[in-house]
Amino acid sequence: MAANNIICYGDVKSEGEFSVSYFYNLAKSYEKQEKYNKAIAAYTKAIDLDPNYSHAYNNRGLAYAKLGEYEKAITDYTKAIDLDPNYSHAYNNRGLAYAKLGEYEKAIRFYDKCIELDNECIEAYCNRGNAYIYVKDYKKAILDYTKAIDFNSDYSLGYSNRGHAYYMLQKFDRAVNDFDKAIKLDPDNIKNYYKRGKVLLEIKNFSRAILDFNKVLEFKPEYSKAYYERGKAFAGINKYLKAIDDYSMAIKLNTHFMKAYYERCKAYKKLNNYDNSLADITAVIKLEPGFADAYYEKANLEFETGKYKESIDDCDRAIILDSSRDCYYELKGYIYYKLGEYEETLKCFEKALDINHNNPKIYYHKAFINCKMGNYKEAIEDCNRAIAGEPDNYKYYLLRGNLYFSQNCYQKSLEDFNKVIELDNDIHSIYEHKAIAEFELGNYKEAIEDCNKAIAFGVKNHLIFCRKGIAMFKTGQFENALKSLNISLEMNNKYAESYYYRGLVYAKLGDWKNATDDYMIAVELDPKYTYDPESCNKQ
Fold first, then answer.
1. What is the pLDDT of residues 252-308, one digit of tens each?
2. Domains plus CATH for the chain?
3. pTM
4. Most Cβ neighbours (<10 Å): which of 33, 325, 371, 434?
C-alpha cells in the first residue's frame, strides 16, 4: 500500500519580504506543474534569503521526495523541525520519507510526534496506519484508520486502507463493507474495485468479484492483474474456458506473469488437457526455477498420466527446494503405491507425518497400506490416529471396522459400522458389512434386517443373499432361506457355501435327494464341506 503524501505548504512571508515570498510562491507554482527541480531551485533561493524559513525547508523536502531523493528530503524536514520544534506537518512528512526508505519503525515515531502536536491530523493517522500495515501490525493500523474516519466520515482513503487491513486479518466481511463505503464515496477510484474483487474471491463470491474486475478492465483494459484475478473468479464457478481466456490475456500483456501460467495450468488440468497443462507448468519452472510447488504440480500431472518415474523425480526436486511440505512426500507415497512398492510408500508417509503429525488423511492411507501388507495391528493404530484428528470422517471408521472384522473383533467392527451410518446414512453398502458382523455375533434377526436394507438400497450380490439365507436357516425360516439361497446361486453357481447351506435347508424340509445333490456339489467346489452320509439325518 502506497503511503499518501499530503503536501502541506507553510504560510507565505509578509509583504515586506517580497523577494522571499516571490521565490516561495514561484516554487509552489513549479510544483503544481510537476517541475520539481525548478521548484527546489526556487525554494533554495528563498532559503538563501531567509535561512530560518522553516516552511521553505519543509516544502523543498516535499519536492525532493517527489523526485525520490528521500535522504535529502529528510535533511530538509529535520532542518524545518530544528527551526520550529512544533511544526507538526514536518514530522508527518519526515515519517513519510522514512517509510519510503523502508524504515517503518522510525516513520511511526515521527507520526507519533505529529499526532502529539496535532491530535486531529487525519493524514498522520492514515500514514501511521500505512506504516503499521508494512510491519504487519494490522490491528493498530485499523485503530489509526478508524481514528481518521472518526474525524472525517467521508474520508474514502481511510475506508479503503482499513478494508485492506481487515483483508490481511482475514476479516473479509468487514473488508467488503469498508470497500463498499470507499466506492460509494469515490466511485471513480478503480483501485477499490480491484481490492474489493480480491476480497470477494476469498469469500467465494465469484459472480460479484467478476463484476468488480469487469469494472476495473472497463477503465484499464491493459491491466494484466485484473484479467488474472477475474480468471480465478471464473475458475471458482467452474467456467474453466473463460478462466483460460483471462489467464491467456494476462500472459499476453505480461509474458513473465508466472502466476497466470500456474493458474492456467490448473484450469487446463480441470479440463483434462494434460498436454497444455504440462506446457504451462514447464513455463512456470522456466520463469521461477526455485518454485517448489511448480515441481509438485508437475509431479501430479505426471502421476495422473501414468509417468510414475518422472513424477518421483519431480517430487524429489520439490523436496530439495522445500523439505518442509508434507504433501510432497504424500504424493511420492501414492506413486510408490501405484508401483506396488509398499515399503517405500510407508517410508514416504512416515516422512510426511514427521513434518505434520496431525494429518489424518495420511494416517488413513498409511492404515490402508499396512492393511495391504497384513500389518493389521499397525493399521488399526493408524486408523485410531486418523479418527482422533478428524472424528467425523466415516471412511476412517469403515476401514477400522473392516480391520476389526478381519481380526474377528466383531463387536468392535459393528460399533464402527454403526458410526459410519450415524455420520453418513447414504453409504448404503455399509449395511452389507454390518449384516456380516451381526451374523458372526449370532445376531441373526438383526443380520436379516441389515441384509434387507442392503438389498433395498441396491446391494445385490451372491454373498448378501447367501448371508441372508444362512441367517434365515439359523432362525428356522427354511422356506425363506431357500429363496435367498436360490437367488445367491443364480448369481454365482460356483459358490460352495450357498450349496452347502441350501443342502441343509433341503434336509430340514425333508428333501433328501436335493440335499444330497447340494452337499456333493459343495464338496466338489470346496473339500472343507466334506459330507459324512451317516450324519445327514442328524443334520
1. 999 999 999 999 999 999 999 999 999 999 999 999 999 999 999 999 999 999 999
2. 1-135 (1.25.40.10), 461-539 (1.25.40.10)
3. 0.78
4. 434
